[in-house]
Amino acid sequence: MLEGEIVTKIIGLTGGIASGKSTVSQYLQKRGIPVIDADLVARRVVEPGTVGLEQIRDTFGWQYLRPDGTLNRELLGKKVFAEPEALAQLNAITRPLIVEELRRQLQTARPVAVLDAPLLLEEEVYRQMADVIWVVTVRPETQLKRLLARNHYSLQQAKERIAAQMTDAERIPLADAVIDNNGTVEETWRQTEQLLTDILADQN
């Protein structure tokens, strides 16, 4: 590193599905902080014409593509979240592609960037990208209720998706900071602002 060079401080933002990460990431974006969304990157690496989609087709079959050539996410999701072996196969295809793109985007951000990744703590390669880790938490019953309302899953589908991830009890010991999203949006924003203020102060 050259003297005086600004090094990006990467905040790893994570939490369970429907925990409220988007509430935090939207606030950070309004504050002018670049947010790299791992879920969005994951979608891009399997768009039509990509190596990722071609590998999924070869591994799982043509039936997981829609007539227009796009990935049938709902159909593939039902399979992989019900079959751990299939989920492992899918991750083996997409993970290297996602990691490559995340690293590319993070390299261009200064002086603070956020890596929003649901599997940040489950996947060591994602965890190593972050300098600090923020975990968004929510009560299990609230999480399930939000997921059912947001994604219109059946109760079984919702529970499968939650079960495929770490619990908050497993995430919290690995966190540098915890954002409690059980209250109002404004309360979540206040917690986020305080944490951001501390990070920015360290960068100056």
Can you give keywords for this protein?
204 residues; 10 helices; disordered N terminus; 53% helix; globular; Rossmann fold; alpha/beta; 5 strands; 5-stranded parallel β-sheet
In brief:
This protein is α/β, with parallel strands linked by helices and 204 residues long. It contains ten helices and five strands; from the N terminus they run E-H-E-H-H-H-H-E-H-E-H-H-H-E-H. The protein has two domains: 1-34 and 110-204, P-loop containing nucleotide triphosphate hydrolases (Rossmann fold); 39-108.
Structure description:
The protein folds into 2 domains: 1-34 and 110-204, 3-Layer(aba) Sandwich (Rossmann fold), CATH 3.40.50; 39-108. It has helices at 21-30, 38-44, 51-60, 73-82, 84-106, 124-127, 140-151, 155-163, 168-171, 185-203; strands spanning 9-15, 35-37, 112-116, 132-137, 177-180. By secondary structure, the chain is α/β, with parallel strands linked by helices. The longest helix is centred in the middle third of the chain and has 23 residues, at 84-106. The model is unreliable at 1-6 (pLDDT under 50). The chain is globular and about 50 Å long. 26% of the residues are buried. It has a 5-stranded parallel sheet, with helices on both faces. Helix content is 53%, strand content 12%. The protein starts with 8 loop residues before the first strand and ends with a helix. α1 (21-30) packs across α10 (185-203), α3 (51-60) packs antiparallel against α5 and α4 packs across α5 (84-106).
